[in-house]
């Protein structure tokens, strides 16, 4: 655009450019508001076919890319457990489980005395529903954190092991890997819990990395094919303050998070993936300046990570909803679709949805993957389970993405040779083009479009 403007007086150049644009069919319309409040975007958006890379690289099928984490009350218990199981099994997803907490009891209440019952039940449910299993090696038994052997104080769940017990935690991690030999992916710890250093006002990334290295060696010793990653850093951000090396209209990622990732990358014994988590919301201004713009925070983080490492990128948790403006299920699904589109297009290998805890008797459970299984008529799938499963169906690892563009900035698109998904991220009724196909999208509508018909 700038080059063309600089040569505005050379009409023959402009004519040549116009001819080339017309030949390529790259015509982009401008949005206009018609009578009746329907926003119409003017013309088809045709671009020369080109590949955008593949989803989930460097993984390939059958890695689903998309999945979820089981939390305190999951679908493995209750009279409607089998109802939920049928829905979950309909399209296999990555399923993640922690070794202590979030549905699992203390696995080693005293040194050498193991209690696997709750974790066994949860892992068996993952297998029975066809899940691709991931284990998060967190949290640690109380005796590793200064408590008495045999005691479990759940208020201290998020304390880190004391340094003298890092090796004990590594041995426990190896015991987990031996007990579930079919699991190949292990994330070490969760959000650096217990590793914050208040004196230095930053993460104790040195301590975490020392523990990580011991765990890495122990899990690899069980089976060299096991894949181990970290550091599972929470990528919090602020709008105010001095900012950091990674910033945008949504604010700036806390520098201590960036420092922790960089230290771990430089000093870890080895890694098979790099994991992070975080919200689009800032700590001081919630989602800023709006929920759609705030999605770009994840895009910026992915690009920053890719500039630092070639390891597969994992989002072990992600959150996009504002604290102050509860969303409808329709809007929630649409915004998550938009976020997953961004994750696919920026080269993420794994995305895990942190499932909400269904409350007993709650037959709606907004944001839950399924309705509570604690009642006989429960277990029905939630809208978000459908979102994840559709992405796993059409955009698993290895899927070739193609360049299909919307004519409205309020629409986000992801396409492969056989299917396109488009989502309206606004509360406007739109008549727009997705590539050369004219579509009418209701507010926060998600549309899956067969490209072969």
Give the key terms.
alpha/beta, 2 domains, single chain, disordered N terminus, globular, TIM Barrel, 11 helices, 22 strands, 453 residues, 4-stranded mixed sheet
Q: How is this structure best described in words?
A:
InterPro entries: GH, Glycosyl_Hydrolase_39. This is Glycosyl hydrolase family 39. Helix 6 crosses helix 7. This protein has an eight-stranded parallel β-barrel, surrounded by five helices. It is an alpha/beta fold. The chain has eleven helices and 22 strands. The N terminus is likely disordered. It folds into two domains: 82 residues, no CATH class; 340 residues, Alpha-Beta Barrel (TIM Barrel).
Helix content: 25-40%
What is the domain tally?
2
CATH architecture of the largest domain: Alpha-Beta Barrel
Q: How many distinct helices?
A: 11
**Spans of 5+ residues with little confidence (pLDDT < 50)?**
1-32
Q: What CATH first level of the largest domain would be assigned?
A: Alpha Beta
Morphology call = globular
Mean pLDDT score, rounded?
91
What's the N-to-C terminus distance?
Answer: 36 Å
Strand content: 15-25%
- What's the CATH H-level homologous superfamily of the largest domain? Glycosidases
Widest sheet, order of strands: 4-5-6-7-10-14-15-16
E-strand count: 22
Write down the Rg: 24 Å
The helix-and-strand class reads: alpha/beta
Strand count, sense and barrel status of the largest sheet are: 8 strands, parallel, barrel
CATH topology of the largest domain: TIM Barrel
């Amino acid at each position: 655009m700038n080059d063309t403007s600089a040569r505005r007086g050379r009409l023959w150049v402009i004519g040549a450019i116009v001819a080339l644009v017309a030949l390529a069919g790259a015509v982009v319309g401008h949005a206009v508001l018609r009578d009746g409040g329907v926003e119409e975007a003017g013309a088809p958006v045709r671009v020369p076919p080109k590949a955008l890379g593949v989803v989930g690289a460097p993984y390939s099928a059958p890695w689903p890319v998309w999945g979820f984490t089981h939390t305190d009350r999951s679908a493995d218990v209750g009279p409607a457990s089998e109802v939920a199981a049928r829905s979950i099994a309909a399209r296999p997803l990555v399923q993640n489980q922690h070794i202590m907490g979030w549905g699992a009891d203390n696995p080693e209440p005293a040194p050498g005395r193991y209690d696997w019952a709750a974790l066994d039940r949860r892992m068996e449910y993952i297998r029975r529903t066809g899940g691709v299993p991931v284990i998060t090696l967190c949290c640690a038994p109380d005796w590793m954190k200064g408590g008495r052997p045999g005691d479990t104080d759940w208020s201290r769940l998020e304390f880190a092991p004391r340094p003298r017990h890092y090796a004990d935690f590594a041995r426990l991690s190896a015991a987990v890997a031996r007990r579930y030999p079919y699991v190949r992916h292990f994330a070490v710890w969760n959000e650096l819990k217990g590793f914050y250093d208040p004196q230095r006002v930053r993460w104790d990334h040195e301590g975490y990395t020392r523990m990580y290295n011991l765990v890495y060696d122990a899990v690899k010793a069980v089976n060299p094919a096991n894949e181990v990653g970290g550091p599972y850093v929470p990528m919090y951000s602020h709008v105010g303050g001095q900012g950091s090396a990674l910033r945008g209209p949504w604010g700036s990622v806390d520098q201590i998070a960036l420092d922790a990732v960089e230290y771990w990358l430089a000093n870890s014994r080895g890694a098979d993936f790099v994991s992070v988590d975080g919200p689009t919301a800032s700590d001081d201004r919630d989602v800023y300046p709006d929920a759609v713009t705030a999605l770009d925070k994840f895009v910026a983080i992915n690009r920053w990570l890719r500039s630092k490492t070639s390891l597969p990128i994992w989002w072990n948790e992600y959150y996009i909803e504002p604290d102050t403006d509860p969303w409808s299920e329709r809007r929630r699904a649409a915004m998550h679709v938009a976020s997953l589109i961004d994750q696919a297009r920026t080269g993420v290998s794994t995305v895990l949805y942190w499932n909400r805890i269904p409350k007993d008797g709650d037959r709606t459970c907004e944001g839950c993957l399924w309705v509570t299984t604690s009642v006989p008529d429960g277990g029905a799938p939630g809208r978000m389970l459908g979102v994840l499963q559709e992405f796993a169906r059409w955009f698993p690892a290895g899927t070739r993405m193609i360049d299909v563009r919307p004519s409205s900035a309020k629409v986000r698109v992801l396409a492969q040779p056989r299917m396109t998904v488009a989502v309206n991220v606004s509360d406007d009724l739109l008549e727009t083009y997705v590539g050369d196909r004219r579509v009418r999208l209701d507010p926060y509508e998600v549309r899956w479009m067969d490209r072969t018909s």
